[in-house]
């Protein structure tokens, strides 16, 4: 039976860092979606542009309500443990809602490449807003699934930090986000091994999304060089 990591205890599972990470994740994905919806399809007559035009007022009116719900959610996240109650379900709902928004942002980013862009820097701005959201999203998902399994005596991911020594620190939350960033920046799996088939599939999806984003940036760079 795998030995649970230090962070699988109830005290550390409700760490303050999780809502802070979610807040940053929310900000980046909001900027990414706003950039795509309001500036990505302005000079196009395609079906995608028509849909974006329809979505703009909905997005503008819904954004304050979503922000208000998240502010209330963050308040409850800190209030519930103080009242002796678990905030795990609330954090999970917030996390999976953000994953859904991140997926929408990924689709929007891919649609931009097939849409004529009057602003050559739009796709780059979109990429810079979306990449941090994607890294935080995958890091949170890896952390949540693996730590949830470790609390039940199982293990989904094998980290080098699972065998700490004098030169290696024990496993921490940071290691999950570090792995996600390594996949994003240098396609390096950071020696993390998936131990189940679903986790292997998630690794493939993660790598595929990152490869797709690199392809989008290269396509845009080639297009700029050609028009220059």
Distance between the termini: 60 Å
Q: Show unreliable segments.
A: 1-14
Number of domains: 1
| Total beta strands | 2
Number of helices: 7
What's the overall average pLDDT, rounded? Answer: 80
Coarse structural class:
mainly alpha
What coarse outline follows from CA principal-axis ratios? Answer: globular
Quaternary structure annotation: single chain
Order of helices and strands: HHHHHEHEH
Rg (C-alpha, Å): 20 Å
Strand residue percentage: under 5%
- With strands numbered from the N-terminus, the spatial order across the biggest sheet is 1-2
What is the helical fraction, as a range of percent? over 70%
Largest sheet: 2 strands, antiparallel
Descriptors for this entry?
single chain, 228 residues, mainly alpha, two-stranded antiparallel sheet, 7 helices, disordered N terminus
Give a verbal description of the structure:
The protein is mainly α and 228 residues long. The protein has one domain (6-227). It is 72% helix and 2% strand. The protein has helices spanning 10-13, 17-39, 47-82, 88-113, 122-151, 173-186, 197-227, and strands at 157-158, 193-194. A two-stranded antiparallel sheet has the order 1-2. The longest helix is centred in the N-terminal third of the chain and has 36 residues, at 47-82. The radius of gyration is 20 Å and the shape is globular. Mean pLDDT is 80; it is low at 1-14.
